[in-house]
Amino acid sequence: MPKPKASPDRTPSPVLTTLRQQIQTLDGSQGRAGNLAFGLPEIDRRLPGGGLAMGALHEVSGDARGAVDGAAAALFAAGIAARTTGQVLWCVTRNDLFAPGLAQAGLTPERLIYVEAGDEKSVLACCEEALRHRGLGAVVGEVSRLSLTSSRRLQLAAEGHPVLSLIVRRWGREQDAVAFGQPTAAVTRWRVSPLPSAPLPVPGLGVGLGRARWRLELLRCKGGDPAVFDVEACDAKGRLALAAPVVHRPLAVSDRAEHGHVRIAS
């Protein structure tokens, strides 16, 4: 009776193990402290590891069409930071951080450390120093320009620590947004644009506005592909939800209530 064949030895050779460690060291993936999932499979499966890499730099911007876009980008970053563990340092050059808005996205005042720096160079320096601190869950900096050198410094400072580095790109003028196309060391790059909210029937008032909606564009993802998602804005726990399509259709005359108010047709 022939002897059964022995199963092949699947233990990687020392040479392969060493090579993999060298590759991880070169691409910065060695020592990362897990991933922060969005909790939406449609988004998480697009991200290597099933979420945003901790110990890494991520970029967020608006669509450069005004203050509303900048606010949407900041709230998206706030929702991400809110789902981390620990204090969150938020560094700006302008005295315009709206705490109630951040709280609506899940980032409450008791978790927030606010730093107002004199210029963008100081913002980046504060972020780099804060990323080396073990007690923070996330570090957020608002700047208009981010050079490849500066982004590499932030990436290196974050690597190996369970902290999330977020840079929110803000522009005073639309033409300044051209700099967003320049390469950086960010692991992911996101663009957030507001979408029309779904109308809701409000008793006695007619039509009200539903939860804010955004278009999320994953413009760059290291180890992944670009993608676009329509979502409902962060709730009080920093969570997103996929947005259902908004259907617009004309209202019949019978749908117009008294006193000039309008109600949603059934």
TrEMBL record:
The protein, known as: Damage-inducible protein
Which InterPro entries does this entry report, sorted A to Z?
ImuA, P-loop_NTPase
